[in-house]
Design a protein that fits this description.
- By secondary structure, the protein is an alpha+beta fold.
- The chain contains 10 helices and 32 strands.
- An 8-stranded antiparallel β-sheet has the order 13-12-18-9-10-17-14-15, with no helix packed on it. It has a 4-stranded antiparallel β-sheet with strand order 2-3-4-5, covered by helices on one side.
- A hairpin with a 4-residue loop joins β3 (about 40) and β4.
- α2 crosses α3.
- The relative contact order is 0.07.
């Protein structure tokens, strides 16, 4: 609420229209921007102020006179919204009966747990206002661990689903959901789903089968920690010195259960990453650690360009990791657009007749190949990016050298002669040749085929193939013109457009390099 132009009504309306989620405010702000003082709780009809250096002192008071009408209207709106998603409030709304404070609290909780309603609260993190009310709402309206049905997989029983029993007298099952590098080494955050974890006991890493001793247990309080002896079901703790990754399951060894794998969405953006110093020893160390911490952060080496490619959920996501590499590992990196994998191909048929002859004083090299190369139909590229056909008759090329000829053809396909990218969609037909009883060898025929292919390919009117991607864009209807303009600017071709209520969907084919 301390931001310039803060307007909670507009935000709530956007939640309803853009996200299609029923939402209503539980509070009315007292002032806004620099004049933000506190909030009014609509349900209890009390003003809440935060006093003290960090807002730790909560002061309750009467609703300011100039907000009495606004609070009354907000309460009516809240009851009307709850009446649409909760049967009990709906009946009272029809009978024109005023619900009590407890009935409203219970209705908000039921609708929130059922994911039919989103309560909206207000505050300022910078000025420490409204924070306690938010935490109270989390405790009051969110489900307890015993009210949520979680499942795990029984590894011994063909990964059959088993319900989690969230009680401390059951066998221990915990999930490592977050990793953090601290001054004591790797800090692993574990949520205990079932059973109890105690200091000094042994835990089993389900994925690796290793047994680890819990030497220290800590409960985290923001940036401080409290040493504890045990944690029960539903609690979160931190462990030290445990080698694992995010999403790994730990048990007490009596069971072979694994928590259901978390959903990891596909990356939406990729960047090439290059350290400024070639011998950056911490470069790979940082990338390995970040991948263990965050399953949505992925790293691979492009086979063609040998670039290190990082992928994630957005530009800001990747920028944060690049900055962390600089700050935590002293590795300055340069990011850029990944190189596009172009291809080269032939347009017309071309014949070849090439003799490879080399005399070195002793046994020389001799090999002669004849035939032609031709383009493969574009529809066959996926199944046959290249094809070698042997039509040699009469043994003019001994059978033991045919495989060498094929290797020479594959050598030529590996790197094109225009821009250096691989060649696809070419068929080489070997029809005739000649061999020498002394000077011919596998190397001679391999080189003869390679040079014959390179000469013939240049005569096929070669062209460069650019990858074309099918792109589907969903956006609010008011941005349809901007989306179409951006696609046209990137040399895309609009294939289909569809409008549904407030959103439009555009399908296009766009060159990957743009």
């Amino acid at each position: 609420m301390d931001r310039a132009g803060a307007n909670p009504k507009r935000i709530i309306e956007q939640i309803r229209t853009k996200l299609k989620i029923p939402a209503a405010a539980l509070q009315v702000p007292i002032g806004a921007e620099d004049a933000f003082e506190g909030v009014v709780d609509i349900l209890s009809n009390q003003a809440i102020y935060n006093r003290g250096a960090r807002g730790e002192d909560i002061v309750y008071g009467k609703v300011p006179e100039h907000l009495v009408e606004a609070v009354s209207e907000a309460r009516e709106e809240l009851v009307a919204m709850l009446a649409e998603v909760d049967d009990e409030i709906g009946e009272m709304f029809i009978e024109d009966t005023e619900p009590t404070v407890e009935q409203l609290h219970d209705a908000v909780r039921r609708a929130t747990i059922a994911r039919k309603f989103t309560p909206v609260l207000m505050g300022s993190a910078i000025k420490d206002k409204g924070i306690q009310a938010l935490l109270d709402a989390v405790v009051r309206y969110m489900p307890k661990s015993t009210e949520v049905q979680n499942t795990m997989l029984d590894i011994k029983n063909n990964e059959k689903e088993v319900d989690v029993v969230p009680y401390s007298n059951q066998p221990f099952v915990g999930l490592a959901f977050k990793l953090e590098e601290g001054k004591y080494g790797q800090l692993t955050y574990i949520r205990v789903y079932q059973g109890r974890l105690e200091k000094g006991q042994f835990a089993y890493h389900v994925k690796s089968g290793k047994k680890v001793k819990i030497a220290r247990l800590a409960r985290m309080h923001s940036n401080s920690m409290e040493d504890i002896d045990s944690v029960g079901a539903g609690e979160i703790c931190a462990l030290f010195g445990i080698d694992c990754a995010s999403g790994d399951t730990f048990t007490d060894g009596s069971t072979q259960y694994s928590m259901s794998t978390m959903f990891v969405p596909d990356p939406v953006i990729s960047l090439s990453l290059t350290p400024k110093e070639k011998n950056a020893s911490n470069f790979s160390k940082a990338l390995n650690r970040f991948q263990k911490e965050d399953p949505t952060f992925r790293v691979h080496i492009d086979e063609e360009s040998n670039q290190t490619i990082i992928s994630g959920m957005g530009e800001l996501h990747l920028d944060i990791y690049v900055e962390r590499m600089r700050r935590e590992y002293n590795v300055d990196c340069v990011t850029g657009k990944p190189q596009v994998a172009f291809r080269e191909t032939a347009s017309v048929k071309a014949t070849f007749s090439y003799t490879h002859k080399k005399q070195t004083g002793g046994a020389g090299q001799f090999g002669r190949v004849e035939g032609y190369i031709e383009p493969i139909e574009s529809g066959e590229h996926a199944d046959k990016p290249q094809e070698f056909v042997n039509r040699v008759m009469g043994g003019t090329i001994p059978a033991q050298y045919i495989s060498a000829c094929q290797k020479g053809f594959m050598d030529g396909m590996r790197e094109g002669f225009m821009v250096g990218h691989p060649i696809v969609g070419v068929r080489m037909v070997l029809e005739d040749g000649a061999a020498h009883s002394v000077d011919s060898s596998e190397l001679a025929f391999r080189l003869a085929t390679f040079y014959a292919f390179s000469e013939a390919f240049k005569a096929t009117k070669p062209r460069i193939l650019e990858p074309i991607m099918t792109v589907e864009v969903s956006a609010p209807i008011e941005f349809q013109g901007n989306v179409l303009g951006t696609i046209n600017k990137r040399k895309g071709i609009i294939v289909d457009t569809e409008s549904q209520e407030d959103y439009c969907s555009v399908v296009a084919e766009v060159p990957l390099n743009n």
